[in-house]
Amino acid sequence: MKKRVVVNDTMQRRYVYYRTEPISCHFAPEFRPELTPKQMLRMGVFGGKYMTDCRKEFPADWLKRAKLCSTHQDPQLNFFKVNASQPLSVWRRKDWIHPQDPRGWFQWYCRYYMGRRSEDDERQIKRWRAIRRHVAQLKANCPPGALDCRPRQRQALLHWAYDSRRI
Q: What pTM did the predictor assign?
């Protein structure tokens, strides 16, 4: 079952990891994302600027109908049509980036979803759980189903695999 993956893209050269679990199986019990990476890419995340140079690493069907832009970040590609991202430089400065996943949480999630398990899993799952506080804020401040209420917060939740359309 162990599958070796070698990554060669603009951010990593000859990075090797192993997929030790079946795809989308055996997640940590406290980690229950509401959206798959494929669903997120189709809905529109990160202004389309994510995954444009690492297509070989992930299933081709993730990229069919994905909202991507290889030249720049375009908030109009996001599901909620707003920019809810901080620059990668901010993430680096706050020490949120682990060297194995230089693109951040979503890269970690994609690789975890595909079956990689690593020493960074616990930290990333704790970060994912902490974002849930935004769900409570939406529930407290927005009428049910009002997708135009707090779009930046909704887009940020989407970036973390939470589906605020259900709120």
A: 0.94
Strand partners, 47: none
Q: What is the pLDDT of residues 117-163, one digit of tens each?
A: 999 999 999 999 999 999 999 999 999 999 999 999 999 999 999 99
Amino acid at 146: A
Cβ 132 vs Cβ 40: under 8 Å: no
- Token pair, residue 104, equals 């951040």
Question: In whole angstroms, how large is the CA radius of gyration of the chain?
Answer: 16
- Write b or e for each residue in 2-32: b if 16 or more Cβ atoms lie within 10 A of its Cβ, otherwise e: eeebebebeebeebebebebeeeeeeeeebe
Give CA–CA dist 131/154, Å, rounded: 11
Q: How far apart are CA 18 and CA 118, in angstroms?
A: 9
